[in-house]
Amino acid sequence: MNPLTIADVTLTFGGINALTNVDMRFEPGLISSVIGPNGAGKTSLLNCISGFYHPTSGEIKYGDRRLTHASPHKVSSLGIARAFQNLELFRGMTVLDNLMLARHQKLKYSFLHALVYFGKTSRVEAENRGYVEDVVDFMELEPYRKRMVGSLSYGVQKRVEVARALTLDPTILLLDEPMAGMNIEEKEDMVRFIIDIQKERETTIILVEHDLGVVMDISDHIYVLDFGELIGSGNPAEVARNKKVVEAYIGED
Q1: Where are the domains of the chain?
Q2: I want to staple 244 with a disulfide (CB 3.0 to 4.6 A). Which of 40, 80, 146, 231 is the partner?
Q3: Which CATH number is associated with domain 1-79+170-253?
Q4: pLDDT exceeds 50 at position 111
């Protein structure tokens, strides 16, 4: 497993910096969180990592692979998957169909094989169906597998969104506010799933989340952004003692 490094990254829109000279290093196998007030640049950072934005300057690397100008498809093919804050699901399709569709990137066969559907095609389809069913079980979605996504509660839809990203068998999982809009019980479930993903599937987690209680409880390392600049980093105890971080959240005395 390789670290993901952000080196001196700046992202500019119309002369305004969404990110300014940001340096971060996400170590393999850890839960690393990125926090900050609204507008701090957290989602912009995830967009740069996942290839939706390309930094104006600086470099993003996964191991020895440069991701700075990579497409979202290329980033995904390297084992980096993302669960979005705004659900990227097909509401008129079942949970199972949403997950099978997300898994299509792993379907490796020729057009001819697909046309006649035999041999390699049927074998690959069966293997991928088995993997998706494993994700369904892991995320405890069995009761909903044949339900239309649009008919499910918001909390379950958020779980399906994380499952969608897991179908790509990622080594790094980007989670953009996975607990936004959830009640206490749903948050507790999502925290449990995040920890299980890290430990049981040996996945590196990069978490953007507003619930500081959750962040402090489950993070191995925390980075703090404010107006696009990195103002603090460290383990939860170190971040909690950082005066700049306290000022960013509650203001100066």
Answers
A1: 1-79+170-253, 88-169
A2: 231
A3: 3.40.50.300
A4: no
